[in-house]
Predict the 3D structure of the following.
Amino acid sequence: MNASLLSRSAALVLTLGLGGTASLALAQEPAASADAATGDTHIGLIYRPEIAPSSYDAEAAPEDEGVAGARMAVKDNNTTGRFTKHTYALDEVALTEGKSAVDSARELVGKGIRYLVLALPADEVLAVADAVKGEQVTIFNTAAPDDRLRGADCRKNVFHVIPSRAMQTDALAQFFTLMRWRKMFLIVGPNENDKLYADAFRTSAKKFSLKITAEKPWTFGPLAKARGDTPTRSEAMVFTRGVDYDLAIVADEANDWGDYVPFRTVDPRPVAGTQGLIAATWHPTLETWGAAQAQNRFRRLAGRLMRPLDYQVWAAVRSVGEAATQKKTADPAVLAPYFADPAFSLPAYKGVSLTYRPWDHQLRQPIIVVQPKAMVTVAPEQGFTHQRTPLDTLGTDLPETTCKFS
Amino acid sequence: MSRGFKAGVSVATIVGATMALGVSAQAYTVYVTNEKGNSVSVIDTATMAVTGTWKVGRRPRGVTTSKDGKELFVCASDDDRIDVLDTATGKVVRSLRSGPDPEQFILGPGGNPLYVANEDDSQVTVIDIEKNKVLAEVPVGVEPEGMGLSPDGKILVNTSETTNMAHFIDTTTFQVIDNVLVDARPRFAEFTSDGKFLWVSAEVGGTISIIDVAARRVIKKITFKIPGVNDEAIQPVGIRITKDGTKAFAALGPANRIAVIDAKTYEVQKYLPVGQRVWQLAFTPDQKFLFSTNGSSNDVSVVDVEADKVIKSIPVGLLPWGVAVSPN
């Protein structure tokens, strides 16, 4: 990196000597010397690789999910860094069995790394945050949507790129309000995360005056993952009988059964929630706001379509690059407090610059509402207003927050 | 329905205006690229009507004419080439090696070379259009787009949408000589006719930065406020400044307005309502009319520059992106 930097400036001097003027050389000088000695800014990524999928799983998560987004972001950071004289490197740590997130984080911090991007569940995010507390490390949470991480369990050194569950269910609820679909039939999966998703949806329903007319647990197992020759479970097909509703809401974060429900309800009703019509940060059909360019760049780099986790990790790594560009330094002492500064903003293919909420460090962002093959709408919907920004109509607002940074 | 009715009224207005001014109507040809129509719509300014639709490569965006008006250059982004059309026949006669994903370009003051922003490839390609030869590839920031050329042709400015900079490139050495940080997602760069100032729009930042070209420093940022329009919807893209340096027009994207700006005081004087998602602008050579591409409403708005009035909207192809006007 340093060698190429040197040769680049050497070439610059040479060409200026040939065709440029003295004033040009002077103008270039201060920028070149500013951070020349600091070297690469390392960003650590800790993730747990997907378990190898069943051979018949046509849409399994790719092994490099999230990681590929980080690689693209480091490349983007370095392209910009050529002009600001900042260079970036990615340190990838795949948690295989027996390796803990905390040990890996300590190892990275021990090597001097001050930016950690985590694609891990909530408990591990908290454990890492507490283990590196006081080390001037900034952590980006890209995979845990848990509202408690933005509430009672918030941490000052953690920034959340992934929208909270509350933001996701608010995005859907705003659209249902707009469509005047009022009566919701909530179907809740057996996992803890499904219950949390259902909690978030109940809160959104209250916030936007939707009515939950029925609620049932899903007790039929992972039917969406069943093979095509598995006999159809008739009790699963009739359990929607006798319910008065406009829309079935499925809470199935593990993708075990939600996709089984559409077209199997007794009454013809659309399905939304974690499957069917979903709230997401990214989708292959997103192409406005320059997203087409990111989609192309990603596909060339990774050989596959960009997924929401790839986008979230990309936005985390780009947050570091963008903050460094804006503050003209990669010094963690300067950048750590800057992420929560209203002046910091991240352009991320959403039509507006994204900022972190100072009260809980959640990234404010428009959320796309999408069905498997087409984008349907973008939240916040027109007409939902807020004194600061319409983006704050999604998720927990300042007056309601239970987050207290110590 | 109301659109058609309005257009009818506008025809009467424009005929009236032209007669009242006693202008001997110099007719130009306007070329509009339709990004999703894979075509160019051709408009005659004498009638303000579409006279033809020409087939070009996929995802046509940037467009410009040769200095004599005999050739039309169109970035066919998804085909990684620039189509060259004979404006007499409307046929693609040859293609230039543009490098991957050409989005916007600008022609040297002498009519050659062509400077091309390769959006997916973080570089600017310089092409000799007569020999169809790549003269240089200049590495710039992520997603290069806007291309501005100083009136003397010595300094090329490229804006990179994700790096958020205006890169100053020396056109004799093809080296980046300086970079000026602007607001988020810079889309367009336009020099004033005296070459002293550079205007750069920032689509997501919602501003236009005025850069002192000699000092290479932002000296002023223009912001916009439109009653009843969310600040987030104000996304400046195309900019055009009159030759006399008094007035500037800025297309504000999904705000569906063109801002009229006093180019001396930088005060916004007026917002002209146009079609939906307005992006690129082009003057007729006599600067009597300004054309805007309105991507979401699939039409072009015509502005009377003297009167600051929108006089007509003309339906074109699918997702109009770029616009260029013949020199004669």
